[in-house]
Each structure stands twice: as structure tokens, then as C-alpha cells.
């Protein structure tokens, strides 16, 4: 009986470790996907900009925290300049 109990505990720990590993891999994959998607979004967005627009935002590019914020800023700049 005692052996059976120890066996069950070991199996539970093993299963727990497998679940932890799967959760870790899932998290890593989600982060990779988000990074890929961000790069794809920004790449597509940059292709739509004129050379002058790129030069206008180049100095403060790292001030933006999201692609949406950058897009909105460029839209505002385009509207006020033209």
C-alpha cells in the first residue's frame, strides 16, 4: 500500500512537470507569435509611408509604445502638413 502511494505521488509530480513544461513552451510560442506579428505589422505600415514621412518620424521612433500610436501620429502629421 505504501509503495502504491509513493508511486501515485511520483506520477503526479511527473505529470505536474510535464504540464509546467507545456505551459512554458506555450508561453514562448505566444511571445514569438506576438513579436512576429508586430514586425509584420510595422513592416507593412512602413511600406505605405513616403520617404518624407519616414524622415519625419525617424528621430522619435523609439518614443512610440505601439504600432497604433505610431500610425496615429503619422496620420496626424499627414493631415496637418497637407
Q: pLDDT average, as an integer?
A: 79
Instruction: Quickly count the helices.
Output: 3
Q: Supply Rg.
A: 25 Å
Helix fraction? over 70%
The coarse overall form would be rod-shaped
Number of strands: 0
Order of helices and strands: HHH
How far is the first residue's CA from the last residue's CA? 83 Å
Regions with little confidence, pLDDT below 50 for 5+ residues: none
Structural class: mainly alpha
Q: Can you give a write-up of this model?
A:
This protein is mainly alpha-helical. Helices cover 84% and strands 0% of the residues. The chain contains three helices and no strands. It is rod-shaped, with a radius of gyration of 25 Å.
List the helices and strands and how they pair.
Blueprint: H1 2-47, H2 51-58, H3 67-81
Keywords, separated by commas or semicolons:
mainly alpha, 84% helix, 82 residues, single chain
Condensed summary:
Helices cover 84% and strands 0% of the residues. The protein is mainly alpha-helical and 82 residues long.
Amino acid at each position: 500500500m505504501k509503495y502504491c502511494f509513493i508511486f501515485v505521488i511520483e506520477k503526479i509530480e511527473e505529470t505536474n512537470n510535464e504540464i509546467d513544461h507545456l505551459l512554458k513552451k506555450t508561453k514562448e510560442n505566444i511571445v514569438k507569435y506576438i513579436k512576429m506579428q508586430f514586425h509584420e505589422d510595422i513592416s507593412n505600415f512602413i511600406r505605405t509611408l513616403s520617404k518624407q514621412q519616414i524622415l519625419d518620424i525617424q528621430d522619435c521612433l523609439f518614443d512610440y509604445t505601439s504600432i497604433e500610436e505610431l500610425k496615429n501620429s503619422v496620420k496626424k502629421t499627414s493631415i496637418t502638413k497637407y
